[in-house]
Design a protein that fits this description.
The complex is a heterodimer. Chain A is of the alpha+beta class. Among the domains of chain A are: 146 residues, Probable tRNA modification gtpase trme, domain 1 (Gyrase A, domain 2, 2-Layer Sandwich); 84 residues, Aminomethyltransferase beta-barrel domains (Alpha-Beta Plaits), CATH 3.30.70. Chain A is 21% helix and 32% strand. In chain A, the strands form four sheets. Chain A has a six-stranded mixed beta sheet. In chain A, strands 15-18-17-16-19-20 form a six-stranded antiparallel beta barrel. In chain A, strands 6-7-8-5-9 form a five-stranded antiparallel beta sheet, covered by helices on one side. Chain A is globular and about 65 Å long. Chain A starts with 6 loop residues before the first strand and ends in a 13-residue tail after the last strand. Chain B has one domain: RNA polymerase II/Efflux pump adaptor protein, barrel-sandwich hybrid domain (OB fold (Dihydrolipoamide Acetyltransferase, E2P)). Chain B has three helices and nine strands; from the N terminus they run βββαβββββαβα. A six-stranded antiparallel beta sheet of chain B has the order 1-2-3-9-8-5. A three-stranded antiparallel beta sheet of chain B has the order 4-6-7, with no helix packed on it. In chain B, 41% of the residues are buried. The chains are: A alpha+beta, B alpha+beta. At the A-B interface, α2 of A face β4 and β6 of B.
Chain lengths: 369, 126
């Protein structure tokens, strides 16, 4: 895709002025890094990082049957959501494959869904098709979104908002003014650190971003690109659509059974998921740590250690900036999924030994309540 | 950024210094700067035959894998094991961060002098 046809976030000029190395990602022009991936990763773990995630899709779901609609098209139990709470969920196809993974939030009135940038058009088309059966209205909100992540997030954000942040629980959200602008503020993220996500209008994006950067001056706050966003989530073992999950993966084998609630009633893909849940999946998504030196990358074959035959594939892999170890996620046969199992990963024709290890690869610091 | 005048350069950011019939090979400061976080370096063993223009190894950053292409045809005489284990040495890419001694060695085609390589790097940044 040429640079001209890429969509630009409201902060595009800021990223370029700050030395952001711009790349095309899911149809958007975004910084992959500014001063360096590892430096940005470690700044987020040690202090705080600020991410422009305006490429994420934001969808309002309203109407008298909004709950019934969301119950029917997602896997988690939306009826359990109190106003102001959020839940991780998936958007399945009838065969149990995944159209997307999403976050569903219940507002005071109506619902709010955040979807992956790469899937936004497909999600909207699917949701609109399914909406025909319900009294529901869908509205795509083209607006900005930031993530402020890291142990200093709350201290940096609190002076900029009248909302008492300590009272905002993990996976809770509230409307709040941030640096004088209207925003939707949540305690959530994709890094394994405490932190917040902020949804706001495009015209408010730059002033709020600059206020946050100013608040972090001298405090270790770094702007963070897509590169470290990926390594931070990988250290937690969080799935990334297009890698760990896609149209050909069922949430049960992907380790997402905890967001599939069979007791909530009928939903799209339920039968396929129930069948896999009862029989047990033939393959499972696992974390692994390389024993031999090397880097396992997305797509590398996973080999059976005894026979050398290919039995799986790496879905994401990287050196872990926090631990220095080389880690990854992979689909392996269920028999090799136990903690500590020896597997091999083929890197440029060489078989590297690895051990199955349950993520996170470095401790999570998200708030537990 | 330094572009030592006594070196020849490849478009893929390797350098070579000829010393008699032998060559010292490494990656350039521009490459080290662009890769930023080197996490893995794969080099051939002594005795391995190199072909000018062909890949001889791999350098990996957190994010990506880059082929190392040989500026010379010849045989690997010595590998800088210290650099292969301590990537900090790559911050001195024309000194302690050299990668291979090749002997005998013959320069490949299409190598650039320092001025041409500096212009090549300037063009790549845009």
């Amino acid at each position: 895709m040429s640079a001209e046809s890429l969509k630009k976030t409201a902060l595009n000029a800021w990223h370029k002025a700050q030395g952001g190395q711009m790349v095309g990602f899911a149809g958007w022009e975004l910084p992959v890094q500014y001063r360096g991936l590892a430096e940005e990763h470690l700044a987020t773990r040690a202090a705080a990082g600020l991410f422009d995630i305006s490429h994420m899709g934001q969808v309002r779901v309203d109407g008298p049957q909004a709950l019934e609609f969301l119950q029917a098209i997602t896997t988690n139990d939306v009826a359990r959501l109190a106003p102001g709470r959020m839940q991780y969920s998936t958007l399945p196809a009838p065969d149990g494959g995944l159209i997307d993974d999403i976050i569903v939030s219940r507002l005071e009135r109506g619902y709010f869904v955040v979807v992956n940038a790469s899937n936004t058009p497909a999600d909207l088309a699917w949701m609109r098709e399914q909406a025909g059966r319900f009294e529901v209205s869908l509205k795509h909100l083209p607006r900005s979104m930031f993530a402020l992540q890291g142990p200093k997030s709350q201290a940096l954000l609190q002076p900029l908002t009248p909302l008492a942040l300590d009272g905002l629980r993990y996976y809770a959200l509230a409307p709040a003014r941030v640096a004088g602008r209207e925003a939707l503020l949540s305690r959530s993220g994709y890094t394994g650190e405490d932190g917040f996500e902020i949804c706001l209008e495009d015209e408010d994006a730059l002033p709020v971003w600059e206020a946050l950067m100013a608040a972090g001056m001298g405090q270790g706050l770094a702007p963070v690109g897509l590169g470290a966003r990926n390594t931070l989530r990988l250290e937690m073992g969080y799935a990334l659509y297009g890698h760990e999950i896609d149209r050909g993966t069922n949430p049960i084998e992907a380790g997402l059974g905890w967001v599939v609630k069979f007791d909530k009633g009928p939903f799209v893909g339920r039968e396929a998921m129930q069948a896999m849940s009862q029989l047990g999946p033939q393959r499972r998504l696992v974390g692994f740590e390389l024993v031999d030196r090397g880097v396992a990358r997305d797509g590398y074959p996973v080999l059976d250690s005894a026979s050398g035959a290919q039995v799986g594939r790496v879905t994401s892999g990287s050196p872990s900036p926090s631990t220095g170890k080389s880690v990854g996620l992979a689909y392996v046969p269920a028999a090799l999924a136990a903690e500590g199992s020896l597997i091999h990963v083929e890197m440029r024709g060489k078989a590297l030994a690895a051990r199955v290890r349950k993520p996170p690869f470095t401790p999570s610091h998200v708030r537990k309540n | 950024m330094k572009f030592p005048a006594d070196l020849k350069y490849t478009a893929s950011h390797e350098w070579v210094r000829m010393e008699g019939g032998s060559a010292l090979v490494g990656i350039t400061e521009f490459a080290v700067h662009a890769i930023k976080d080197v996490v893995f370096l794969e080099l051939p063993g002594a005795g391995k035959a190199l072909q000018a223009g062909a890949p001889f190894g791999v350098v990996e950053s957190v994010k990506a894998v880059f082929d190392l292409n040989s500026p010379v045809t010849g045989t690997v005489a010595e590998v800088n094991q210290r650099a292969a284990e301590d990537f900090e040495l790559l911050k001195d890419p024309y000194g302690a961060g050299w990668l291979l001694k090749v002997s005998p060695a013959a320069l490949g085609q299409g190598l650039m002098d320092a001025a041409a390589y500096e212009a090549h790097c300037a063009a790549e940044q845009h």
